Amino acid sequence: MPTPEQMRTCFILGYWATKMYLPIYLIRIDERTKDVIILTGEET
């Protein structure tokens, strides 16, 4: 489970990505380092 700070940051980054009309492809927590990974952007 993400920490409250990670969850807040994930929400903020997701908000800004969708506000810029960028698709969010993946949100994942790295099991080893406990980092939240967000893959977003435009297709080329």
How would you characterize the overall build of this protein?
The chain is an alpha+beta fold and 44 residues long. The protein has one domain. 36% of the residues lie in helices and 25% in strands. It contains one helix and two strands, in the order αββ. It has one helix at residues 4-19; strands at residues 24-29, 36-40. A two-stranded antiparallel ribbon has the order 1-2. Strand 1 (24-29) and strand 2 form a beta hairpin. It is flat, with a radius of gyration of 11 Å.
Feature tags:
two-stranded antiparallel ribbon, 44 residues, alpha+beta
Beta strands, count: 2
Helical residue percent band: 25-40%
> Can you give the mean pLDDT?
87
**SS element count, helices:** 1
Order of helices and strands: HEE
Strand order of the largest sheet: 1-2
- Over the alpha carbons, how many angstroms does the gyration radius reach? 11 Å
How large is the share of residues in beta strands? 25-35%
Q: How would the global form be characterised?
A: flat
Task: Report the structural category.
Answer: alpha+beta
Tell me the domain tally.
1
For the termini, the CA-CA separation is 33 Å
> Which segments are poorly predicted (pLDDT under 50) over 5 or more consecutive residues?
none
The largest β sheet comes out as:
2 strands, antiparallel
